[in-house]
Amino acid sequence: MYSSIWLPIVTPFRNGQVDVDALQRLADHYLRTEISGFVALGTTGEAALLDPHERMTVLHALFETVGTRLPIVIGVGGMNTSEMIRDMQQFDHWDSGGYLVSAPAYICPDQRGIQWHFEEIAHATDRPVVLYDVPHRTGVPILPDTVRRLVECSNIVAIKACVGEHFRALGALPISMLCGSDELFVDCLEAGGTGEFWRVRICSPMTSSTSRRVSPQDESTRHARTSNAWRRPSS
């Protein structure tokens, strides 16, 4: 499920309110591209700046438009594990494709604390959990050894990886690795990545067939294929 191009969708506002019409028009537009799914309430959607009512408004608008045509992964972040779990329990109202969950921000737990955090998250939901390793925002990385232990949780199925030096180690683990940094896309695919959460494609979505053309199994030609796919201008 977690492969190819996933689109983190922005949250448009008008006169200080979530612009539901604009959000639904955006979703309808992207449904006509070949993305694999959406990310709602992610960093790109500025979820940290939305109040609870605004977050629910965003989700209602997206699920009303998208329905079951594509999966929607919901972003969950913050400093308090218990509060994040409560958010997930509210979001369980929707039939989402899972949760994109970051390490606790600002407090910088050690790796044992990060492991505990994600285990609590995983045990609190039956839905898939995608780890979000973004240390330049949270202040702490999710190290590959920690990910190796976390994949023992059956519903931790993927990682959004933003640290290039971790790609090789993560690519060897039984977990889908999707790139979280546009400039590292080729490096991630070469290390065994399966796709990307691609912010730059908000303006011009690349077709998912591009990622299929640069399958990690094509070992002998991977570098040339990924590099060409990255440089190829979209129509």
UniProtKB/TrEMBL annotation:
Keyword list, A-Z: Lyase, Schiff base
Gene3D superfamilies membership: Aldolase class I
Pfam families with a match to the protein in the record: DHDPS
Gene Ontology MF: a single term: 4-hydroxy-tetrahydrodipicolinate synthase activity
Span list, region Disordered: 208-235
GO biological process assignments: small molecule metabolic process
Xref: SUPFAM superfamilies: Aldolase (SSF51569)
Transmembrane as UniProt keyword: no
Tree of life domain: Bacteria
Keyword Lyase: yes
Family: Belongs to the DapA family.
Name recorded for this polypeptide: Dihydrodipicolinate synthase
